[in-house]
Amino acid sequence: MTSSRPQRRSWAEPWKVKVVEPLTMMSAQERQAALVRAGYNTFLLKSEEVYIDLLTDSGTSAMSDWQWAGMMMGDEAYAGSKNFYNLEAAVQKHYGYKHVVPTHQGRGAENILSQLCIKPGDSVPGNMYFTTTRLHQELAGGTFVDVVIPQAHDPNHEHPFKGNVDVDALEALIKRVGAKKVPYVCVGATVNMAGGQPVSMENMKAVRALTAKHGVRIFLDATRAVENAWFIKTRERGYADKSVADILKEFCSYSDGCTMSGKKDALVNIGGWLALNDRDLYEEASNLVVVYEGLHTYGGMAGRDMEAMARGIVESVQDDHVRARIGQVEYLGHKLQEWGVPIVKPIGGHAVYLDAKAFYPHLTQDQFPAQALAAYLYADSGVRSMERGIVSAGRDKATGKHHYPKLELVRLTVPRRVYTQAHMDVTAESVAAVWDQRQEARGLKMVYEPKYLRFFQARFEKE
Ligand SMILES: *Cc1c(COP(=O)(O)O)cnc(C)c1O
User: Fold this and answer.
1) Which of 162, 217, 233, 264 is catalytic?
2) Active-site residue 264, yes or no?
3) Which of 28, 105, 278, 448 would you label with 302, given CA atoms 20 to 30 Å apart?
4) Does residue 368 carry a catalytic annotation?
5) What is the DSSP track for 294-309?
6) Order of all β-strands in the sheet with 409-413
């Protein structure tokens, strides 16, 4: 008897497929033409030109039949839609905040929070920047200050909570500029730009203790806080037997509110919210949201969209769901690791990040190695990824020079409940093929650069 049977028990997705969406498969020649037309920017490809779309996990989730059923229950009243109250109740129950202002997506909430809390000359500390978050802080007159632990900038460091706040650096900042100049600390969990790396409960408690001493608020970027809770459950002592739902609620309890992109954890294609515990701040926010988003009981969303998000929240905090979601990301990451492909370690919650500096040591950062790697990957197989390096980092507000981030990455982002394990196999094999060809790779030059968030629309040519 042969005994090649593995001694493990596998997990499988806690859902089955009911509706399928056919994918297009183009020839290598057609992909090359599409790439040139798109200026070597994967954001400028048409979705129809893409085979496996790992551009982002934002708004790309598959909704459940229960969520779709909820779409039919949309109450499209201008004011006081019942779907708003369902959403409010879901946020209160699972995130624990008192007041909820819906917004069309996460950046809508960031805009309102930044305008309400930040004054010109303020410093806004955060555990690594996020593109839209920092931009709104700067547009409100603030200066973002990175207080993530230094290990977050090292793609090879195996710290289990690489998203942690450097509490000493935060304290030093508060002492240097004075607590009055720090409107709040923005804690992102998980940290997108560090590779989907989590923040520990212990660290969150320490940040709370420090800020309480100085009277400084904490606002959570809760976009992937559910996934963060899974990492606490699996990596932090004392949490193994607690549910993701309980961990999430405890984590949020150490903050004063959150901005949220429902397009990530909450399993919807559009939506977000701003949650606040302070009644006065909530009153101001519900006034300001009218200017930018809509009345405070819809904030830029249709009633049906709020219902889908309310139900998405409930589904998102189920342990089985999170296990399978992060399990799929780990499946892809482990495969690449086994084959010696350089990726950010540990593997993050929503994506596997390729280390473009390690792929292409012969290219300088001014030759946009991650942008080039994303282009080579698309050319090889039609897998769409995105750059997270010098292009995403943009320019310094004061000097106008490029920011030169330590990390030069390509993100393979896995949408929730969309692709199968076989799609992950195809992706891994394509990455391996591009890795094998790495010595021949050439850099890019930027031929068009938009003013804001340039990575979305910048255009490139081959050097
Ligand atoms: C996506 C994202 C946002 C912004 O949310 P949108 O819904 O895209 O506006 C903010 N923070 C993080 C960490 C994100 O990933």
Assistant:
1) 264
2) yes
3) 278
4) no
5) --TTTTT--HHHHHHH
6) 351-355, 409-413, 386-388
Residue 419 inside a domain? The answer is: yes
Is 224 annotated in the active site?
Answer: no
* pTM, to two decimals: 0.93
Judged by DSSP in three states, 188 sits in strand
Render each residue's pLDDT in the chain as its tens digit; 463 residues: 556 787 888 888 999 999 999 998 999 999 999 999 999 999 999 999 999 999 999 999 999 999 999 999 999 999 999 999 999 999 999 999 999 999 999 999 999 999 999 999 999 999 998 989 999 999 999 999 999 999 999 888 999 999 999 999 999 999 999 999 999 999 999 998 888 999 999 999 999 999 999 999 999 999 999 999 999 999 999 999 999 999 999 999 999 999 999 999 999 999 999 999 999 999 999 999 999 999 999 999 999 999 999 999 999 999 999 999 999 999 999 999 999 999 999 999 999 999 999 999 999 999 999 999 999 999 999 999 999 999 999 998 889 999 999 989 999 999 999 999 999 999 999 999 999 999 999 999 999 999 888 999 999 999 9
Question: Which mutation among 264, 292, 301 tests ligand 1's pocket best, with the greatest number of atoms within 8 A of CB?
Answer: 264
Atom of ligand 1 nearest to the CA of 262: 7
Q: What angle do CA 158, 164, 168 make, to 5 degrees?
A: 115
The number of beta carbons lying within 10 Å of the beta carbon of residue 179 is 14
Peptide bond between residue 133 and the one before it cis (omega within 30 degrees of 0): no
Shared-domain flag, residues 47 and 185: no
Looking at the structure, tell me whether residues 331 and 268 fall in a common domain: no
**Residues framing ligand 1 (Cβ under 6 A):** 58, 105-107, 130, 132-133, 188, 192, 221, 223, 261, 263-264, 272
326 and 307 in a single domain? The answer is: no
Cβ-Cβ contacts under 8 Å for 290 (sequence gap 6 or more): 296
The domain total for the chain is: 2
Using the 3D structure, point to which of 316, 338, 367 is the last residue of a domain: 316
